[in-house]
Amino acid sequence: MPVPQRGRWRPDRLAAAIVLIGVLATASGVWASVRTDHNTEERLLQVQTRQAATVLATAIGNLQQPLSAALDVQAAVPRTPRAERAAFSDQFARNVGDDELFLSAALWRRTSDGGFVRVASLGLPPGLQPGSTRSDDFLARATKATTAAVQRVDVGQQTRFAYGLADDDTGLVVYAERAIPADRRAPVDRDSAFSGLDYAIYLGSSTDLDDMTTTDVDPSDLPLTGLTYETSVPFGDNMLTLVTRPREHLGSELGQQMPWLVLVGGLTVTFAALAVARQVLRARERAESDTRTISALYRKVETLYGEQRDLSVRLQRALLPQTIPTVPGIEIAAEYVAAATGIDIGGDWYSVVEFDEGRFAFVVGDVSGHGIDAVAEMARARFTLRAYLVDGDAPDRALSKCAPQFDIAADGHLVTVIAGVGDWRTGEVTMASAGHLVPLLIDPEGATEFVPLPVGPPLGTGPSSYEAATVVLQPGWTLVCYTDGLVERRTEDIDAGLDRLARVAAGIHSGQTNPLRSFVAALLDGMRDDARSDDIAVLALKRADA
Question: What is the DSSP string of 13-64?
Answer without folding.
Answer: HHHHHHHHHHHHHHHHHHHHHHHHHHHHHHHHHHHHHHHHHHHHHHHHHHHH
